Amino acid sequence: MRTPGKQKLRDAVYALYERRLTRSLSPDRIPRHIGVIIDGNRRWARQGGDPVSRGHEAGANKITEFLHWCDGVGVKVVTVWMLSTDNLTRPAEELEPLLRIIEQTVEELTAIGRWRIHPVGALDLLPGSTAEALKAAETDTHDVDGMLVNVAVGYGGRRELADAVRSLLLEEAAQGISIEELADRVDVEHIARHLYTKGQPDPDLVIRTSGEQRLGGFLLWQSALSEFYFCEALWPDFRHVDFLRAIRSYAQRERRFGT
């Protein structure tokens, strides 16, 4: 058990290290777009002997903190993966509370009034109340002049690519373009214009918590040239210094963009 004196010293050292990390960051080496795979909520709850929903609540609270951190260093776009298409197969006793937490979180982010909310995912796979909450958030923040926050709910990278190709085919068919003509001229940019994140810069940095070192289907197309940072901390335990370390790591890398 920590004594008050030791805790005070620990907090002082932490604050000093945090300030040092902040000063080390160069404004011209800040990623424009950060993607984050929030992972570890359930493990965090189980380690504390709490119900899984408690972990999701703690994880939801961390999202707001994280967005403030990103905004504070000048990030322009953040994509937060809150629920995958695979997650939709979880048992109802876990999924339903999680969807309510997501709805509440999106409403709270909207109420802050600092960021533009943009849902990315297959909204048709979600319950009506969740889809409506996401659509309302986008409408209510449409004119906000601030950081763009992509809320990835019901998101899967393979599903996004399938939706993009489907959208492209329907658009071209409506213009009377034959399959042969389309096959002859379609290119990377044609598909990119039909992604959920169309018109946005691709993520410069993708962060994943909980020690897992895989994408799991997150922004498969957009992350082709991204830098990755894997953190051991479970998402609810992800600290400001962990965030600053990720930014520092990104800044120290020499990006070659595949060349």
From TrEMBL:
Bound cofactor: record note: Binds 2 magnesium ions per subunit.
Enzyme class: transferase
GO BP annotations, alphabetical order: polyprenol biosynthetic process
InterPro entries assigned: UPP_synth-like (IPR001441), UPP_synth-like_sf (IPR036424)
Pfam family, one: Prenyltransf
GO terms of molecular function: ditrans,polycis-polyprenyl diphosphate synthase [(2E,6E)-farnesyl diphosphate specific] activity; magnesium ion binding; Z-farnesyl diphosphate synthase activity
Active site feature: D39, N87 (proton acceptor)
Database matches in SUPFAM superfamilies: Undecaprenyl diphosphate synthase
Keyword Transferase: yes
Residues bound to substrate: G40, N41, R42, R43, W44, H56, S84, T85, D86, R90, R208
Gene Ontology cellular component list: plasma membrane
Cofactor(s) this protein cannot do without: Mg(2+)
UniProt keyword Oxidoreductase present: no
Protein family according to the UniProt entry: Belongs to the UPP synthase family. Z-FPP synthase subfamily.
PANTHER family the UniProt entry points to: DEHYDRODOLICHYL DIPHOSPHATE SYNTHASE COMPLEX SUBUNIT DHDDS (PTHR10291:SF43), DEHYDRODOLICHYL DIPHOSPHATE SYNTHASE FAMILY MEMBER (PTHR10291)
Designated name of the protein: Isoprenyl transferase
